[in-house]
Write a structure and sequence with these properties.
about 60 residues, 1 helix, mainly beta, globular
Length: about 60
C-alpha cells in the first residue's frame, strides 16, 4: 500500500509493508527500482527492477 504526504509544492510517497512486498516479488535488497506514477488513478507502479548484472521488467502496482 502506498501513502502520500504533502511536501512543499509536491508530494512524497512511501510504502507500508515494504519488506513484505520485496519478499513477495523476490526483489533483492540493493536492487535499483524504477516507478511510474499515474495521476488519473493515483497509483504508483513498479516499472523496472535492475539487479546486479541483469534487468527484470515488472508490471506491478505498489
Amino acid at each position: 500500500m502506498t501513502r502520500s504526504k504533502k511536501h512543499r509544492r509536491g508530494f512524497r510517497y512511501g510504502f507500508v509493508g515494504w519488506s513484505g512486498y520485496l519478499k513477495a516479488w523476490k526483489i533483492n535488497i540493493g536492487a535499483e527500482l524504477f516507478f511510474e506514477f499515474h495521476k488519473s488513478s493515483k497509483l504508483l507502479r513498479l516499472s523496472k527492477v535492475v539487479e546486479k548484472g541483469c534487468v527484470k521488467k515488472k508490471n506491478l502496482r505498489a
